[in-house]
Design a protein that fits this description.
The complex is a heterodimer of chains A (156) and B (564). Chain A has 4 helices and 6 strands, in the order αββαβαββαβ. In chain A, the strands form 2 sheets. Chain A has a 4-stranded antiparallel beta sheet. A two-stranded antiparallel sheet of chain A has the order 1-2. The longest helix of chain A is centred in the middle third of the chain and has 13 residues. The relative contact order of chain A is 0.18. The mean pLDDT of chain A is 95. The longest helix of chain B is centred in the N-terminal third of the chain and has 15 residues. Classes of the chains: A alpha+beta (156), B alpha/beta (564). At the A-B interface, α1 and α2 of A face loops of B. The complex binds thiamine diphosphate. The site of thiamine diphosphate has 20 residues of chain B, from α16 and α19.
């Protein structure tokens, strides 16, 4: 979409005005600084998705739109999570989890480890679901970004 | 040579061919008003309320097909304009609305008369712009006209901060603009058009269902020719009236909530439905579950988002109505095309049987004036050639049912938003566009009071519209629903203390006539229509509790009409 003030609010406004659901939304400028790329995760029946696609295409600021789920694609989300680790056993456990899920510890304090994890949303969910007794102090997720597999690209 | 933003603004309008502008001044647009004062190419019409400016521009646009242009100040000027912008948005009318804004340095400071105009109007415009740099002013104005008038038309708002109108820059108005993110389609997919035409040839009980899109795209001629070649019955939505001549026998009347028996039963029983520039509005379809249960549906529309939005369509065709109809005509004129004439003859027999119910008949023998009769007489007295605007309510439905529009752009009403207060300012815009035409505003005593102040504007510019108030003393459409669905509990639908409309009109310098007897209706209308140089405000005291029939109650199917 056009990298312009107001473009994001047109998209958000469309979703709220028409009662569609936004599960996550990320947006950042592309290598062409006049364009931003937004990845938006939503859900609905086939008919609703069709309407969402058409309504988004109608917005003057949207340059090109692609439903990633129509083809093979890759999805990634980034999570930063601060876990309470008050003893040796907990620290070891968190390191083990981080290993299994290919996460990295990026900050430590007396009481906490902060981890960085990337993957599909379900992988991040699985990580959080497996923490057991480890207490989550704070958790931030970026929302999903996606790209098509192979040579296919979203071009103008 | 560098000129000011205000001067650039005026030059842009001039180069865009804008001959009239409706507006109201205020602090944020004073530089612009000063620039307007110092030229005489763009005429400015001063309304009495910004809502009326938008409706007047809208009426002008609907009657002429050209974009309507509005100029208002920031804050309350902009918010007052919003109802008119939303009205145009729901009926896809091309408007360009300029709103003044506080100086860029003050934006976001809760400055005097600051509102976020771009934010407030975002959901009810096709697009909007905030001009932050004088270098972008001319191009933005060009873009605004381009977006408003192409594809599915609609209102565009351009918000201009006061300092931008004072800064100086070279003037250059681009001859063309293009937006990489906005490329409306024109031509329909020929394969889809072939599929549609094949389906039409096989149809045994076809229906053409057409809407405002035909009017907006100036496709009446193509529609009329196609309809005649096919010999299919045709029905129109409230927004589509006039696209096909209403006096022709293939026309089965308006459809929908207050549509005719034959149109709605035709829809319900058809096997092929051809929807052209219509959007399956809930007032048309009734209960979606019960809509056209046996039909294969073809849908032609310029807006892909209108297709399969409410009703699943079998053959979607995205394209300009006119271009698609032209392509269809080529195929239908071809030697290999043939309709099923025997089946059509059967179908017409069935339709004539429904038509013989005469669902619009009413009894006018009593001592009180029937509102339907006023519209019928108006139709006769004006030879069906008037521009008719309306407000919203029962009178609007009677106007649509009893004035037979043979030409497009003659019937001007707020169909989508249903905005009371639309009629008189819209009539103002129409009369400005066509100074010699008869322009009648059919209204109710409720609606007319929503923009009654415009009587003053009409006087100032000598616009001789004819106001036809069907005065039933009630907010009639509300009362009708209360009669049917709330056991006649008439909550707040009776208005006491109505003004004496005759005296009121006179106090503004117009003529006023009150008509109370059925036998006086025709004479009064003739007299009023013969007055060419001033407004005549006609107050018809009509049957208080007359209802609009037929009626499909909300949520019912098209075959579940209340007839009388
Ligand atoms: C601005 C606005 N407010 C409220 C309504 C709801 N409404 C629809 S019809 C109607 C009654 C209109 O009364 P009147 O103008 O007297 O016309 P009648 O129905 O009696 O012909 C009302 C209140 C509306 N359409 N628009």
């Amino acid at each position: 979409m056009e990298n312009e003030a107001g473009a994001l609010s047109r998209v958000a406004g469309l979703f709220s005005a028409r009662g569609y659901n936004i599960e996550s939304l990320t947006v950042a400028p592309t290598i062409d600084p006049s364009l931003s790329r937004m990845t938006l995760v939503t859900s609905g029946t086939e008919q609703i998705i069709e309407q969402i696609t058409k309504q988004l295409n109608k917005l003057v600021d949207i340059v090109r739109l692609q439903d990633m789920t129509e083809g093979e694609h890759l999805e990634r989300e980034l999570m930063l999570v601060k876990l309470r680790v008050s003893n040796h056993q907990e620290r070891e456990e968190v390191k083990r989890f981080a290993d299994i899920f290919r996460g990295r510890i990026i900050d430590v304090s007396d009481l906490s480890y902060t981890l960085e994890l990337t993957g599909s949303s379900s992988k991040l969910d699985a990580f959080v679901g497996n923490l057991g007794n480890i207490q989550v102090m704070e958790l931030v997720r970026s929302g999903v970004i996606g790209i098509a597999r192979g040579d296919k690209i979203l071009n103008l | 040579m560098e000129i000011t933003g205000a001067e650039i603004f005026v030059r842009c309008l001039e180069d865009e061919g804008v001959d009239c502008l409706f507006g109201y001044p205020g602090g944020a647009v004073l530089h612009i008003y000063d620039a307007l004062y110092r030229q005489d190419k763009v005429k400015h019409f001063l309304v009495r309320h910004e809502q009326a400016a938008t409706h007047a521009a809208d009426g002008y646009a609907r009657a002429t097909g050209k974009p309507g242009v509005v100029l208002v100040t920031s804050g309350p000027g902009a918010t007052n304009a919003v109802t008119g912008i939303a009205t145009a948005h729901l009926d896809s009318i091309p408007l360009v609305v300029f709103t003044g804004q506080v100086p860029t340095s003050l934006i976001g400071n809760d400055a005097f008369q600051e509102v976020d105009s771009v934010g407030i109007t975002r959901p009810c415009v096709k697009h909007n712009f905030l001009v932050k740099d004088i270098k972008d002013l001319a191009t933005t104005i060009k873009k605004a006209f381009y977006v408003a008038t192409t594809g599915r038309p609609g209102p565009v708002v351009v918000d201009i901060p006061k300092d931008v109108t004072a800064q100086r820059a070279e003037y250059h108005y681009p001859a063309e603009v293009s937006l990489r993110s906005y490329n409306p389609v024109v031509k329909g997919h020929i394969g889809q058009i072939r599929r549609a035409v094949k389906l039409m040839a096989q149809a045994k009980r076809p229906m053409l269902y057409t809407g405002g899109g035909v009017v907006l795209d100036n496709a009446s001629e193509e529609l009329t020719e196609l309809t005649r070649l096919l010999n299919f019955p045709i029905t129109e939505t409230l927004m589509g009236l006039g696209a096909y001549p209403a006096t022709d026998k293939q026309f089965v009347g308006m459809l929908g909530m207050h549509g005719t028996y034959e149109a709605n039963l035709g829809m319900h029983n058809c096997d092929v439905l051809v929807a052209i520039g219509a959007r399956f509005d809930d007032r048309v379809t009734g209960n979606i579950e019960k809509f056209c249960p046996t039909a294969k549906i073809i849908h032609i529309d310029i807006d892909p988002a209108s297709i399969s939005k409410n009703v699943k369509v079998d053959v979607p065709i995205v394209g300009s109505v006119r271009a698609v109809l032209k392509d269809m005509l080529k195929l239908v004129r071809g030697s290999s095309f043939k309709t099923d004439e025997a089946a059509l003859a059967e179908w017409w027999k069935q339709i004539e049987e429904w038509r013989s119910m005469d669902c619009l008949k009413y009894d006018s023998s009593g001592p009180v004036i029937k509102p339907q009769m006023v519209v019928e007489k108006l139709y006769q007295v004006t030879n069906g050639e008037a521009f008719v605007t309306s407000d919203v309510g029962q009178h609007q439905m009677w106007a649509a049912q009893y004035y037979k529009f043979d030409q497009p752009r003659r019937w001007i009403n707020s169909g989508g938003l249903g905005t009371m207060g639309f009629g008189m300012p819209a009539a103002m815009g129409v009369q400005l566009a066509y100074p010699d035409a008869t322009v009648a505003c059919i209204t109710g005593e409720g609606s007319i009071q929503m923009n009654i102040q415009e009587l003053s504007t009409l006087k100032q510019y000598g616009l001789p519209i004819k106001v036809i108030t069907l005065n039933n003393g009630y907010l009639g459409m509300v009362r009708q629903w209360q009669e049917f669905f709330y056991d006649k509990r008439y909550a707040m639908s009776y208005m006491e203390s109505l003004p004496d409309f005759v005296k009121l009109a006179e106090s503004y310098g117009h003529a006023g006539i009150r008509v109370e007897k059925p036998s006086d209706v025709e004479g009064a209308l003739k007299e009023a229509m013969s007055v060419r140089d001033r407004v005549v405000f006609m107050d018809f005291i009509t049957d208080k509790e007359e209802n609009v029939y037929p009626m499909i109650p909300a949520g019912a199917g098209q075959n579940e009409m209340i007839l009388v």
